[in-house]
Amino acid sequence: MLLDFFPSRRLTIYLAKMFAVRIVAVLAMLVLVLMMLDLLSRTADILAFEGNGESELFTYVSLRVPQLIQRFLPYSVLLATILTLAGLNQNSEVVAMKAAGLSAHQILAPLLLTAAFVALASFSFNERVVTRATATLKAWENVEYGVVPVDPDTRLNVYFNDGNDVLMARELSGLGDDAVLTGVTFYERDDAGMITRQITGSRATFANPGWLLDDAQVFDVVTAQSTAATEPLVVAPGTTISQVELRKVDPDAETLAQLSRSIDALKAAGRRTAELEGKWWHKISGPLSAMLMPLLGAVAGFGLARSGHLFARAVIGMALGFAYFVVENAALALGSFGGYPPLLAAWAPFILFFLLGETVLVRTEE
Prior knowledge:
Elements: H1 9-48, H2 54-90, H3 93-99, H4 104-142, E1 155-162, E2 165-173, E3 180-189, E4 195-206, E5 211-213, E6 217-220, E7 225-228, E8 233-235, H5 241-245, H6 256-268, H7 274-296, H8 310-336, H9 342-365
Antiparallel strand pairs: 1-2, 2-3, 3-4, 4-5, 4-6, 5-8, 6-7
Helix pairs in contact: 1-2, 1-4, 2-4, 2-7, 2-8, 4-7, 6-7, 7-8, 7-9, 8-9
């Protein structure tokens, strides 16, 4: 019987159903409260754009809620674990199950199975919903909650380096040789980094090399005079097509497959990708953290309730769960600047706390 993790079908369904209901309830409570607080801080910014109204507020909620679900689902599983096991312990149901011959692992098995389904659903939800919502919301925020460009290849607030010089534009549309910049500003700088000339224009096309400004306005810093160019002017001649095609990658707005292609492209261009590789691995390890929560919160479900230590056990379980998230974020931060290899940064906290949870469970209950 000790090797049978699901000795009773009825008990498995009972525990799994109880656990799932609490996960949904806790998640709904957290998302509702946090969404209200977030909306209070964003409403003024959204309504500041002329024409925005109640429908735009609902649009913001629809884009923000998936992000909140992604972020707080593991916390919900942790809190649901503590509520479920503490309730079972308080009502002596854990004692009854152990008296029937069930081990601590057998009691936790239905919770772990439910958490595995939650992890799988979380991964699918992140890939299909959260990435799209994040990309749309960030594009909307970049235009200060105004009109989002229809072209999916349009990039906002871009800049390119040409030696000491800097080329900036409000918007980049098109790909390759067909790329077009609007709202262009080019800064010529000397070796000391001081700006010597500022060249502006409403539109620039890729001249390969450089960018061709049709209506350039030149401001000379030394003479403090501004003049209009009499003919089209080419700026940033050191800009290459690879700089145009490469973009700033937002791992939260890309699926696992898209992020893989972005990492390969950046590697081919000689860019550093340690942070993105850590994020790639975290797209897998992050949802799987839901499976750790029943193990880390299990300490709340065992021990005699009448001993008076139930609350202390619940606090310990909560502390273990939150410690995991702290260590996970710290490891990802260290991995982002090369302190850890990306694979280690994403998976070391998971393995460490899995072993820690197993150790606590075995030594105290098995």
